[in-house]
Every structure is written in structure tokens, then in C-alpha cells.
Amino acid sequence: VTNGGKTTLAGKLKKMLPNCDIISQDDFFKPESEVETDERGFKLYDVLDALYMDEMVKSIHNWIKSPTSSSVGTEKPQNTCDNLKYTEDIYILIVEGFLLYNYEPLNELWNRRYFLTLPYEECKRRRSTRVYQPADTPGYFDGHVWPMYLKYKNELEENASNVVYLDGTKSQEELLCCVYSDIMQELKRLRE
Question: Does the keyword rRNA processing apply (predicted)?
């Protein structure tokens, strides 16, 4: 969901996990001139056609082929607990975005899937505090953003499996703890 805390959560996880990098779907938006406009004058940013998804997939595949030559920093994670011992040869890529699980070429790549949800009022409140370029036009949230979120969420619920739904109204610390613990379990499972 828009303004659900995806980027914040990804950034906090990157600081805690070994050899971790992030690819953000927001970096693949087409320029405004290439984004379609509907009959109401709304720019259709909340659809897959507003993104260079092939480029995103290529970036992910390039990272998978050579994670050590990516932009992963050499700094040690802030968390130095025993959970991280023996992880120096593990590389983690967090891919964050709002339309990741609705794009079929990406679905074969995920080890874990997390989906942040927000109720309508909270999402609208958070969205109203953000400044976008171009700026949201009056009625854009109700006329485009929220309906597209519901559409893609319904598609996800019908088609995707192994998705962990997270309540975006929980504190950042709670969400971080939940996802971090889950990733540690996945790393342990992959080591066995």
C-alpha cells in the first residue's frame, strides 16, 4: 500500500542484515510524459505500465548474478547478535515496491514475500502528508490510488501464495522485529 512503510522497513533491515542491498520499484517509474492519463485527467502512476518493469527485472537478475559487485556496502550490520554468525557468504536483496507480486516475471524470484496493509483512512492521512512530483491532483487518491491498491491487492490474494501480510499501523519497531525474525529463520533454513 502507498505510504505503508515499505521504504522505511527496507532501510532498517538493510542496516541489520549482512551483505544486504535494496532495489526500489520507485526508481523505475517512467517520466511523466510517458505515463498515461485517464479521462478524468489523472496520471496513471499506480499501474504496471507506469514503470519500466523489464529494467527492474534486469537489475534484479544482474544483482543475483553478481551480488558482490553490486552496491552492497562492506560495513558490518549494526546487529551483531549470534543470529548473524556464519553469514559472511550470504547476500540478501530486498526488493521493495507497490506492484511487485502482480508482475509475473518477478514471481519466480522471491524467497519471502511481505505485504504491508493500511486501512483507508490511515493511508489517505499518510498520503496527504507527502509531497509528490508531480503533485497529487484533487481527488487522485480516491479516484485512482486507492482503487488501484484494492484491485492489485485482490489479484494478489487470488493468485499469490506464501505472502505474509503485515499491519502497517503497527510501530516500525514491531514490523522490523517481525520481518527480521522471519528472515533469520529463512537464513537458518537455507543453511540446513
Answer: no
Residue pair 20/14 in contact by the 8 Å Cβ criterion: yes
Each residue of 144-165: pLDDT tens digit? 999 999 999 999 998 877 899 9
Tally of domains in the chain: 1
pLDDT at 78 over 80: no
Instruction: Please check the confidence at residue 113 and state whether its pLDDT lies above 60.
Output: yes
In a domain, residue 82? The reply is: no
Q: Name every residue whose Cβ is closer than 8 Å to that of residue 189 and which is 6 or more positions away in sequence.
A: none
Range of the domain at 23: 6-68+89-187
Domain contains 18: yes
In a domain, 39, yes or no: yes
Global pTM reads 0.87
d(Cα 124, Cα 132) in Å, to the nearest integer?
A: 14
Catalytic residue among 21, 26, 27, 142: 26
For the chain, the average pLDDT equals: 89
Q: Is 27 an active-site residue?
A: no
78 occurs within a structural domain: no
Within 10 Å of residue 45's Cβ, how many Cβ atoms? 22
